[in-house]
């Protein structure tokens, strides 16, 4: 009896009544359409992210060789000098990266001239803090021979430690020029002194610098549609090739060897 249609707004005083059921339905449909578009876009983005090919540095064997300087200071209870004994050095190391940030390494550093010889054998690990910059620590086994005009000092060997840091300047995907500094220290319990066949004890420390040519092997990692991450290497050849086929231009990337 009021004459007002259920599908039309009506006025009470100066205010309009809420929107009709028909307009509410249209609003809900628009929301559903927006949600559907968003879900499709999200799925496409996830798929694009899932199928990828990324290069990782520091994923294989490690090696370094070069030269530097040993700044050695030997202190004895008696019979030996305490001044710094400086020599040039040859440095060599081998190891393997167990993750892209961490490697284990074994090496030696020999400092030598006509009067002095210092040899440090090391076994330890290095960890990259940021790209190119790493810190390292190692247990060492050290030997010393020092000769002057009157005496010869010979330390036949004993344990010590090493701490240090270095920085890699990349020369491509495989090689780098590395500058490093390290500190080595040890207690020398038995130092043979000749002439006289005497023995003394003491300690030494050495500040070492080096520049080396370093091999830092890297490797591609392929991610397939299922999100599975596969290292691209000969031992994974079949799976790697299947993954590379899903990535545009995957098999033609430089550095892939299968």
Structural write-up:
With 258 residues, the chain is mainly β. 15% of the residues lie in helices and 57% in strands. It contains two helices and 13 strands. The protein has helices spanning 21-50, 237-244; strands spanning 11-12, 15-16, 52-56, 61-76, 84-97, 102-112, 116-130, 133-147, 152-170, 175-194, 198-216, 219-223, 229-231. Strands 4-5-6-7-8-9-10-11 form an eight-stranded antiparallel barrel. A three-stranded antiparallel beta sheet has the order 3-12-13. It has a two-stranded antiparallel ribbon with strand order 1-2.
Distance between the termini: 86 Å
Mean pLDDT across residues: 81
> How many beta-strand elements?
13
Question: Which structural class should the secondary elements be placed in?
Answer: mainly beta
Question: Roughly what fraction of the amino acids lie in strands?
Answer: over 45%
Uncertain residue ranges: none
Q: Please compute the radius of gyration using only Cα atoms.
A: 34 Å
Biggest sheet character: 8 strands, antiparallel, barrel
Number of helices: 2
Spatial ordering of strands, largest sheet: 4-5-6-7-8-9-10-11
Molecular shape = elongated
* Helical residue percent band: 10-25%
